[in-house]
Each structure stands twice: as structure tokens, then as C-alpha cells.
Amino acid sequence: MDRDKIKALIALLDDPNDEVFSSVESALLREPVEIVPVLEKAWEQSLDGLFQTRVENIIHSIQLNDIHAELKKWLKSPNNDLLYGAYLACKYQYPDVSIIRIKEQLSELRKDIWLEMNEHLTSLEKIRIVNHVLFDVHKFSRNTSKYLAPENNYICEVLNTHKGNPLSVSVIYSILCRELGMPVFGVNLPKNFILAFVDEAAMTENELASNEAAVLFYINPINKGAVLGRKEIEFFIKQQKLQPQPEYFLPCDNITIIRRMFNNLSFGYDSIGEDQKKEEIKKLLALFDMLNEENPQ
């Protein structure tokens, strides 16, 4: 990054000539996200309303471009790490969010669970401990007063408030279980995202169960980690008047989970009339469609 060049361009942002501004804006938008602190400092040092508005818009566009590039890279990565995908979703609303801080918060929760564990416990007993720590000790729960609020999908916020929606709480639950050696994966059930505890012997190369028989039991994190069987899932599907699909009973991949997270954000922003944010989320969701087109089933 050429700081002198950046400062020279920033100095022209208050130029009243639209052509000059357009040229300067285009040049700045080609720069990496690392120029944002320089732009922020320029904003702080100015009292000009037009200049500040233009800087704010450019910063937002640069940060959005950065998320677009990072998400595209994540989608093409071989493992599609769940935590990093959820972190990228957080970066949309909170560009300065620290993945180190998120990992520290998860580490604190993991430690609390680990201290209660021993090697003689059954799978169900281990899940009861996870439930006790998350829901009895740390009081994670559904955000009932603001159920559709976009912030329920940002795990950085959920880790701070301990309130979220079925998807975000399930993501945190799954990450913790996986880090503790328990094969717990997301199940893309409509209207209520849940988890599946899988028989490790039935895992495939991509770490997902290849058939439903591999699922030992299901977990509903938004209901304090209630353990469910297939019949309860079938009853829920019937109750919601849904047509049963195989994927409603099988673990899904991390791309499916993060896509659902962005879909939730789109719906959430739409529900509060944030049309610009809804459209920006749609552009990020388009990356998932592009991936499907490049890798048809």
C-alpha cells in the first residue's frame, strides 16, 4: 500500500466535480482493506459533511468487497471450516470483529465442558454435560423477544449475549462438540435447525454420515439440548406440513449451514426494512449459487 498515493487520493474526495470524485472513488475501491484505518483517520480529521459521507460509503464498499473475496475463497477451500464461515458472516455487520476473541470465548466454554468430562462417559452422558454447561450454567437460549433480528445469526453477538436462534446456537454447540472429539453435525431441518450425533465408525471421507443409520440420536440446542429420535423429527415434519426429504434426517455440510445463515440474514434485514443490507446479502448469497453452477451434482 502506497500511503502517499492513498493520502493524495483521499485529499480529493471533497472535490465538487463529479467526474473527479468518480475517478478517485474507483481508484480507492481497487485498494485492499488495509487502507480503511487511513480513511477512518481522514474522516475523524474532517468536519466536512460531504467528505465524511463519501469516506463512509467508500469504507463500507471496501469492507464489503473484502468479505466477498474472503467468502469466495472460503467456498473454494477444501475443508470449509465452520467457525471461519460463521466469522465471515459476522464481518458483514461487524467489520472489526476479532476471530481471536471469538476463539477465546469458545475456548472458555470448551474448558468448562472439558472439566466435567471423563473417558468413561457414554455419548448421551457427554451431551448432558454439554447441555448443563451451555444452558444451565451459561444460560444460552432463544432470543424470543427479537426472534427475527439479524443479530441472532452473528455468533460474535450470540457469544456476548448468550441469546440467538436455532442456527447460531447449533453452530456454537457443534463447534464445541467437534473440538471435544464428539461427532456432532448440523441437520438442515426447515424451521428448526438441529444437530445429529453420528456413529464415528460410519463416517465417510468428508466426515459426514453416508446414511441415516449412522445417526445415533438428534439434539435440539434451542430446546436446551433435548435429545430426539427419528420419530420426533417425523412428527415435527408432519406438524409443519412439510414433505419428508432425506436431508431432513442427515448431517449437512458446512457450506449448507453458512448459506442458511446468510439466508436468515437476508430475511432478517427484510423484516426490518433494511433493503440495502438485504441486497448486499443477496450478492454474497450469489456466490453460493456460482459454486453450485461450477460444481453441479
Which characteristics define this entry?
4-stranded antiparallel β-sheet; alpha+beta; 2 domains; 297 residues
Structure description:
- The relative contact order is 0.10.
- It is elongated and about 70 Å long.
- It has helices at 3-11, 18-29, 36-44, 49-76, 82-93, 99-114, 123-137, 155-161, 166-179, 230-239, 254-271, 275-294; strands at residues 141-142, 163-164, 184-187, 194-198, 215-220, 226-228.
- It is built from 12 helices and 6 strands.
- It has 2 domains: 3-76, no CATH class; 82-294, no CATH class.
- Helix content is 57%, strand content 7%.
- Helix 3 runs antiparallel to helix 4 and helix 5 (82-93) packs parallel to helix 11.
- It has a 4-stranded antiparallel sheet with strand order 3-4-5-6. Strands 1-2 form a two-stranded parallel ribbon.
- Strand 1 (141-142), helix 8 and strand 2 form a beta-alpha-beta unit.
In short:
The protein is of the alpha+beta class and 297 residues long. The chain is 57% helix and 7% strand.
Mean pLDDT: 91
Biggest sheet strand order reads: 3-4-5-6
What proportion of the residues form beta strands (DSSP E)?
5-15%
Low-confidence stretches: none
How many H/I helical runs?
12
- Which structural class do the helices and strands define? alpha+beta
The radius of gyration over CA amounts to 22 Å
Helix content: 55-70%
Largest sheet: 4 strands, antiparallel
Amino-to-carboxy terminus distance: 42 Å
Task: Give the tally of structural domains.
Answer: 2
* Element string (H = helix, E = strand): HHHHHHHEHEHEEEEHHH
| Overall geometry | elongated
Strand count: 6
